[in-house]
Structure formats: C-alpha cells, structure tokens
Amino acid sequence: MSKPIEDYGYIGNTLTGALVARDGSIDWLCLPHYDDGACFAALLGGPEHGHWQLAPAGPVLRSSRRYVPGTAVLETTHETADGRVTVIDFMPFGEEEDHVELIRVVRGEAGHVRMRMQLTIRFDYGHIMPWVRRIEDVLVAMAGPDALRLYTPATLHGRGLHTVAEFSVGAGAYVPFVLAYDPSHRPARIPRDWDIQLKETLARWRDWSGRCRFDRPEGDPWREAVLRSLITLKALTFSPTGGIVAAPTTSLPEEPGGVRNWDYRYCWLRDATLTLYALLGAGYRDEAAAWSEWLMRAAGGDPGQLQVLYGLAGERRLTELELPWLPGYADSRPVRVGNAAYAQRQLDVAGELMDAFHAARKQGLQHGDGWGFQLALLERLEKVWREPDEGIWEVRGGARHFTFSRVMCWVAFDRGVRAVEDFGREGPVAHWRRIRKEIADDVHRHGWNERRQAFVQSYGSDTLDASLLLLAQVGFLPADDPRYVSTVEAIERELMVDGLVRRYRPERADDGLPGGEGMFLACSFWLADAYVLLGRRDDAVALFERLLALRNDLGLLAEEYDPRGGRQLGNFPQAFSHIALINTAYNLASAFGPAEQRADGDGKRR
C-alpha cells in the first residue's frame, strides 16, 4: 500500500533530490540529476523497485521529525522502549555535475537502540539489477553507466537481493552511511568526512536562508512558511544551468488510481514570471538572474519552435514513455517518463516569456542581446495569435481558442510596447499598440459569456477556468472592472470545493482524459491574490491561512489537494505551489506586492 504523500520529506543538493518517508525509507532518488533514472523507485511500486530503509529494528513508540532551521537537512527522531535515536539525512551541495552523495547519520540520544538498515538498489526506475560486490571495505553496485558506493563502519551482509546491517547505537555515538554516485567508467571519488560535510552543508544553507527578505519577525508562521518554500525552491534548482524543475518526481497521480500521471522533472516557461517575483521579492537576485538567463538560453532560436517546457539545460526533445514494470503510486497507471506536452502549441507562453523579460528589465537584470529575440518572438506571434492551441493546462482533448492564451498574447504585445515606452527599446510601437487593441477586442467579444456574466475557458464555451483569476494581475483589466469582479464571483460559486479552487470542471471541459483531479493549489493562492486586488483582505488572509494548514508537518506542498480525502495529490514537492505561496505572502505583507507589480500597479491597463 502506498504511503500518503504527506509522509515524505524532501532533501536536495541543487543537482537532484530524494524523498524520505517517516518510517526512514528513502523511496525516490534519481541519479545523477533530477531527470535521470531512479535507483530508488519504491514510490511508484514497492521496496523491490529500490529503496533505502534506516530505522529501529524493533517497535517504535513515537517518531518526530523536523528540518534543521534554515536548512534542507532533515532530522527524524525515533523513541523505543530501549532509548532514542535521530537519523540525519542530507545531500551535500553538488560541486561536480556527475558526483552526488547522500549521507545518513544515526545519532544516539539516550539508552541503546538496535537499528536495522536495508539497501535495495535497482537502476533505471527499478528495472535493472546491479552487480553488487565488496571492494575492500566499500560496497559497490554497478550496472551500465551507473555506479553507487556505500561507505560505512557498520557491518554489511547480503540477504537475498538486498544489503542489510544490524547494529546498536548508544547515547552520544554516531554511525554514518555515505552513498556516493559516480559514472561507472570513472574512478571513484572518495567522500570527505561526513561530519565536515554536515557542518559545511548546514553553514551554506544557513548563509543562504539568512539572506531572506521578508518583513516578519523570526518565528512568525508566515515567515517560516515563506522561508521553507524558498529553501524548497532552491533545492529544486539545477545549479549548473539555473533551471528550476517543477517537481523532483514523476507520475504521482492527480487522482489515485487514475491516468493523470505526468513527469514534472522539467522546467516550464509558464512558471517564469511568478518565479522571478518570488525570488526577487525575497532578495535572491543571483538566483533570479540565473533563472532569467536560463529562460533566454532555453527559448533562444527560432520563435516558431518555442516550447512550453524544456530539460534542465534547455533540452527540447522530452519524449514521453510508459514504464510497464512499475505498478504506479496507489496503482495509478501508467507511470510516465518524459512529457509529450513539449510538442504542444501553447500560445500563452509567448506572453509569459515577454512578461518575464519585462520583470527582469524592471529589476535591471541583463539578457545580453535578448531584445532581438523578443522582436522576432512578437513578429512570429503576430502571425499566429488567432490560431487555437492546447492552453495553459496542456489539455489532450484537442486545440481550441482558449481565453487565457489569447490574454497572454495581449500581454506579449503590451510588454513590447512598455519596453519601448519605459525602457527606450527600438520597435514598431504604434503597430504593436494596434495589435494589442485588436487582441483585447477579440477577448472581450468572444471570451466573455454574457449569460454566465464571466470570462470563460474558451471561445463559445460556458466553462469557467481558474486561470482567469489572473486577468487583473497581468494587467488586462483593472481589478475593479465589473467583468473581472463577476468572473471572480462566478469562480467562487462554481469552482470552489471546501474553500479551495479547482482549475476547471473536467467533466465539462472535454480535456481528453478520463477521471478527475484534486484542487489545484496554485489556483487557490491566485484567488487569495485576487482578493487582495479587490480589497477583500480578510478573505485573502483566511484563504491563505487555510492553504498553509494543508502543508505537511515539514511545510511541503504537492500540486493538488483532495479536500474530501484530506490528502495531497500530484507530484511533490511542487515548485508552482510554493512559488504561489511566496507571492501571496508578499501580496498580503506589502502594499505593493507581486500582483500589483506585475500589473505595474496602475490597475488601469486595457
């Protein structure tokens, strides 16, 4: 039986990351990078697909866990009848792209506790059994291009097709386990002492988190939520390129037992602008610049080949495959790697990209000769903005004229106009103004449903869509426009379940997939942002507090939430959910938060 998503903590090192369950089992780890094959894939199957358990051998009376404050170092404390131990899990920051270490340390706290370790390595998502042997005092597991080495003073034994160790830990004693990855064709790099690496990792995280700029006192729940989200975002960053993965996992279902299971270990252009505001608002200018530069490199080239998502370094071919040997989380099949959405037409990303460049210009971030690319992008968009696409939610039910896609085409030309007006760039500004007005008129004529008194998901439909909560935030309408107000009210009436917002109603949207999904957490944060813009601060605070209460005990959020089942759904932890949390917190804490900044604060754009 699959463990609840809430049972997992996340540790990462800006190259890859691991999911650690309450019971001491690491059930997911891809090596050497986020999007490579998993050597522990029990998350999507069982222990036989790879895991690493480290826990007391006997009954546990109680367990508790926490992150060391300001860090991504996880401590899990177990109490037994014989004593108390803490397992410290962390990944030192990656200094070399193809060398990764995961370190687990058992620290005795009181009495004597009998511990048991079981290590099951299966490369290629649980598919490949490695060749395991001992070289001197090191356990080596190797298959094809991959090699893992386990360094520990504990005595190891082979048992079946697993490696086990049993040992006792007394108060004040430490038993370390260092699992190191290197390509199999290269000499092993001997890890440095675990205690030195722990001290360095703690110091680097504390130095980084100490730069957080959020005007709330230490210990304030909002500040702690923002800081944990920022640390999670940093731990989802691929440091060699600056790309930020949407999540470190694949195929965690939006509906248990359903087919809406996607690979999110890639970088989405759609996250671009909100990510910049989250990082810049918190004072992380270097990370914002790295993300901004990644956007330019990934998208650069022929604008006609612009994609919605890319690989960690900007790779474009992300072929979607199914892994039939994995039964899936909670029997949710298929398990997918790769994401076919990379080949979809999604016109809104042009607006997202232009908006991100606009936000970067306002903050003085540099793009080299990126203006030439933006000119070409607008020239291309002029030719195609009237065409249908698959939309922000990447539906698989066929292209249509999505209202939000059309609005983001408006955003693209609006940001081009402002680049000329506000920043002195050269461009056909009068021509862009005409196109901007033409798109706005098109949206008002076809995207507004008079009977529903709301903007709707696509032209000619009567389906509501939570993406239209962003109309005021992107500056398309002022927040006090009656059409925006009534659209928000319609979404409140029809898309809210137990105080949370769903993206749309799948049974009415014909998105090409069976089954349903949970409440999309970013949309609920967007509603809180809309409340801020509408002056409904009490409603915004209440919804924000409701969303904070959905985090697990470590402060982590997945993509969606099932209010009836009381559980998180979808890939985990989800960058977009944490980005939305950060921005909503700043919208509530500041008179000029990201929502106002994105609309340039005048509330009068058309």
From TrEMBL:
Cofactors per UniProt? phosphate
An example GO biological process term is: trehalose catabolic process
Annotated Gene Ontology MF terms?
Answer: alpha,alpha-trehalase activity
Q: In which pathway does it act?
A: Glycan degradation; trehalose degradation; D-glucose from alpha,alpha-trehalose: step 1/1
Keywords for the protein's UniProt record, in alphabetical order: Carbohydrate metabolism, Glycosidase, Hydrolase
Q: Which residues form the Trehalase-like N-terminal domain?
A: 2-154
Pfam families documented for this protein: Glyco_hydro_15, TREH_N
Q: Which InterPro entries match?
A: 6-hairpin_glycosidase_sf, 6hp_glycosidase-like_sf, GH15-like, Trehalase-like_N
Q: What class of enzyme is it?
A: hydrolase
Entry's EC annotation = 3.2.1.28
Its UniProt entry gives the catalysed reaction(s) as: alpha,alpha-trehalose + H2O = alpha-D-glucose + beta-D-glucose
Residue span, GH15-like domain: 223-585
Family according to the record: Belongs to the glycosyl hydrolase 15 family.
Protein name listed in UniProt: Trehalase
Source species? Aerosticca soli
Source organism lineage? Bacteria, Pseudomonadati, Pseudomonadota, Gammaproteobacteria, Lysobacterales
